[in-house]
Design brief:
With 487 residues, the chain is α+β, with helices and mostly antiparallel strands. Helix content is 47%, strand content 17%. β12 (318-325) and β13 form a beta hairpin. The chain is globular and about 65 Å long. The relative contact order is 0.15. The model has no long low-confidence stretch (mean pLDDT 95).
Length: 487
């Protein structure tokens, strides 16, 4: 969502000033990429998980303020909807027991938070879309009270000039409209961060784009929205539509969407920031007092506040991140593809697969992206979102292949090699990648399990079945047994 902002109105002058400042930040960023010392000595990785809140019946609990007050942990933060919270796990190095540290921290934090939030009637569920949401939950009243969310909603609706249309066809058909961006709050994700040098950033981003379809096929966990069975990862079309600032006429003209897979392989991190500035008008034109050039020439590290805020309102599935830690700048790829859940074990298996595979591909002698078109990667992405574990994807040297077969035959060994390059212990690598292997062999992920259980309850009322299945899902989530073992 970008940086914290306060409720306000923007004038034409604000927008002109902001555009000029963003472009100045971009020029300074280009100079930093040439001359500045970025933190690249021992790259860190990061993990964020967005969670849903439900009551004891499995219905949404619009109580994130009360839950956060009860949890009283700065690692937990508000999210767009009152039925959402987010947890930020402290960054870690992967070498040694980095993955195990992530897992321990995530499990401990979730267990503690669940115990405290349960006292205010809010239970945590790691799932991509809360299946018990109804139309009434997706209006302005469900927005979290933080001013930035209402302001962002107002700006997106103003840019669009009409209500947002949600139109998704899967096993069922859903067509509805919204007068705010609250439908975006229905999408909860796992965000994986990998730090990289400026020189290697393009390779890590390109590799992340190339494997996004496979990630979705393996980790799909959002099959239901508003009582309808839609895509296996319905988050993808929902998020794309819920934050679309374009009218139908602008879509026809080829104006780019703010939720964007992209359109080409890149050669530098600068390409992405420059595209964001060139293609997308400001949603939140808040100008900071810092003179980034003066700070840089004075030996400091500029915040580039306007560039970072603008970057936070362009929702790439693999987002470039410029940040500062200890006064030193660094770059990260933020992988935003995956849904939350189903369990901490599944989440860490997804993380291990991504971290290992992206490193192996990014540092291979012959880049994967030199062997496939960008459009093929995008087609893989949407095919996997639609079909999940059943998806067929394109892979260089193989052609069209079932994603699970590709993973078993080719990608798991690559991911294992990448984790070894990170310095992950073989025992830890085998344990987590073994979950991915069994998911492929058993042909089940979160979305597939949920849909099968719903089909088993096909003679029940749809909403009763959704609540019952979600409560069963939540109970199994707390066992931390991977989803492929649930049947």
């Amino acid at each position: 969502m970008g940086e914290e902002v306060e409720a306000q109105e923007f004038s034409r002058g604000d927008r002109t000033e902001y555009r000029e400042k963003v472009r100045r930040c971009l020029d300074v960023f280009a100079r930093m990429l040439r001359d500045a010392r970025f933190d690249t000595d021992d790259p860190m990785t990061g993990l964020e998980v967005e969670l849903n809140l439900v009551d004891e019946h499995g219905d949404p609990a619009l109580r994130n303020a009360e839950a956060l007050e009860a949890i009283a942990d700065p690692d937990f933060q508000t999210e767009l909807g009152q039925f959402n919270v987010e947890i930020n796990i402290p960054p870690a190095h992967l070498h040694g027991d980095g993955l195990a540290t992530f897992e321990r921290n995530l499990r401990r934090s979730l267990n503690d938070a669940e115990e405290r939030s349960a006292a205010v009637g809010a239970h945590m569920v790691m799932i991509g879309i809360l299946p018990t949401l109804v139309d009434g939950h997706l209006d302005d009243a469900s927005l979290s009270p933080n001013p930035r969310y209402r302001l962002l909603s107002e700006q997106i609706l103003a840019a669009r000039g009409e209500a947002i249309t949600i139109d998704i066809a899967g096993r069922d058909q859903l067509r509805t409209t919204a007068d705010s961006i609250v439908p975006e709050a229905a999408c909860t994700s796992t965000q994986l961060h990998v730090q990289t040098s400026p020189a290697q950033f393009a390779a890590y981003w390109n590799a992340s784009q190339a494997i996004s379809g496979v990630q979705l096929a393996l980790g799909a966990n959002s099959p239901y929205l508003l009582g309808k069975e839609l895509w296996r990862e319905t988050r993808i079309p929902l998020f794309e539509q819920a934050t679309d600032t374009r009218s139908e006429e602008l879509k026809v003209q080829g104006v780019r969407p703010r939720v964007w897979f992209g359109e080409r392989w890149i050669t530098s991190v600068f390409d992405l920031f420059e595209e964001n500035v060139r293609y997308f008008p400001a949603l939140l034109p808040v100008t900071d007092e810092e003179d980034p050039l003066a700070v840089l020439e004075g030996g400091g590290t500029p915040n580039l506040a306007e560039l970072r805020l603008h970057n936070g309102t362009v929702y790439r599935w693999n987002r470039p991140v410029y940040d500062i830690a200890g006064g030193v700048p660094h770059l990260r790829v933020e992988n935003r593809v995956l849904a939350a859940g189903p369990t901490v074990a599944d989440t860490m298996a997804n993380a291990a697969f991504y971290f290992g595979l992206v490193r192996h591909l990014a540092e291979s002698e012959r880049p994967l992206w030199s062997q496939m078109s960008f459009s093929a990667a995008e087609e893989n992405f949407h095919a996997a979102a639609r079909h999940g574990i059943d998806a067929q994807v394109y892979w260089p040297g193989v052609g069209e292949v079932r994603a699970t077969e590709l993973v078993l035959r080719r990608l798991l060994p690559m991911a294992r090699a990448g984790l070894e390059e990170w310095g992950v212990a073989a025992e830890e690598s085998d344990r987590l990648l073994g979950i991915i292997e069994q998911r492929c062999l058993q042909h089940v992920n979160g979305a597939e399990w949920f849909a099968r259980r719903m089909h088993d309850r096909g003679d029940e009322d749809r909403w009763d079945a959704l609540r019952a299945t979600l409560l069963e899902y939540r109970e199994r989530m707390h066992t931390n047994e991977p989803v492929h073992t649930w049947d």
